[in-house]
Amino acid sequence: MTHSSAPIIALVRAVSDAIADCQLTHIERVSIDVERARAQHTRYVATLQTLGCSVIELPPLHDCPDAVFVEDTAIVLPELAIITRPGAVSRQAETASVASVLGEYRPLATVSGASATLDGGDVVVDGKAIYVGLSARSNQAAIEQLAKATAPFGYRVKGVPLRHCLHLKTAVTRIADATFVGNPDWYDAEAMPGQHLHISPDEPFAGNTVQLGGSLLRAAEFPRTNAQLKQAGYDVHTVPADELARAEGAVTCCSLLISPPC
Ligand code: CIR
């Protein structure tokens, strides 16, 4: 459970009817069982609630195959939220409905201009450090806009070299202050000061984690890495997420978390 009395709000969106037409970059297209993906998403949302989140469902977008992956549409900080401009054109229609809900909770900034693209999945925040994966989806023009919007609040933005995976959060996520779990083959750990725990080498996608207060929510398909984290003292909760993974999504992708005001 989280320790704050006010709940963390989790924005989620239903799996699109068109998820089979999702964007894919680093994995092969295989058939996706929409009902199974929906069942996994339902369980994910229920687990967020069990872990203390108050869930808000965004309107479904059945013309947007990747709409379930709401994480890519915004970056939510305590002081403001930044609406992204997703790197895949097919995903750019996803941001408007996110902005209209997030605007009730945070002042908004927006990544804009034809040359700037940013996916929220590329952004790992650790205190006042914002790390952005230098991926095919996120570019320097957007990083500069993110830096300008967040500098007044004391944030520093830094690009992190990335390879063989879609987003920075495919490779590495934060699990505690200045502590990360990741696949060292996919990102430059030296770019992110702190302790880096390594995934089990036979589970290359196991770097993805939702951190909710003192609890971690992770995909059940990575039993060795999950066991390592439990052994290290983390409170690990798991959900099946292999059908969503066929759309190159992971657990962080399926929610946007809004912490209560400090
Ligand atoms: C895409 O390629 O945009 C989607 N098929 C997967 C997005 C996953 N999102 C994330 O990692 N934050």
Task: Describe this protein's structure.
The chain has 262 residues and is an alpha/beta fold. The chain is built from six helices and 15 strands. The protein has helices spanning 34-50, 95-102, 140-150, 168-171, 223-231, 242-245, and strands at 9-13, 54-58, 74-76, 81-83, 108-110, 123-126, 129-134, 156-161, 172-176, 179-182, 195-198, 210-212, 215-219, 235-239, 256-258. The strands form five sheets. It has a three-stranded mixed beta sheet with strand order 2-1-15, with helices on both faces. Strands 3-4-5 form a three-stranded mixed beta sheet, sandwiched between helices. It has a three-stranded mixed beta sheet with strand order 6-7-8, with helices on one face. The chain is globular. Citrulline binds next to helix 4.
Fold topology:
Elements: E1 9-13, H1 34-50, E2 54-58, E3 74-76, E4 81-83, H2 95-102, E5 108-110, E6 123-126, E7 129-134, H3 140-150, E8 156-161, H4 168-171, E9 172-176, E10 179-182, E11 195-198, E12 210-212, E13 215-219, H5 223-231, E14 235-239, H6 242-245, E15 256-258
Parallel strand pairs: 1-2, 4-5, 7-8, 10-11, 13-14
Antiparallel strand pairs: 1-15, 3-4, 6-7, 9-10, 12-13
The site of citrulline has 20 residues, from helix 4.
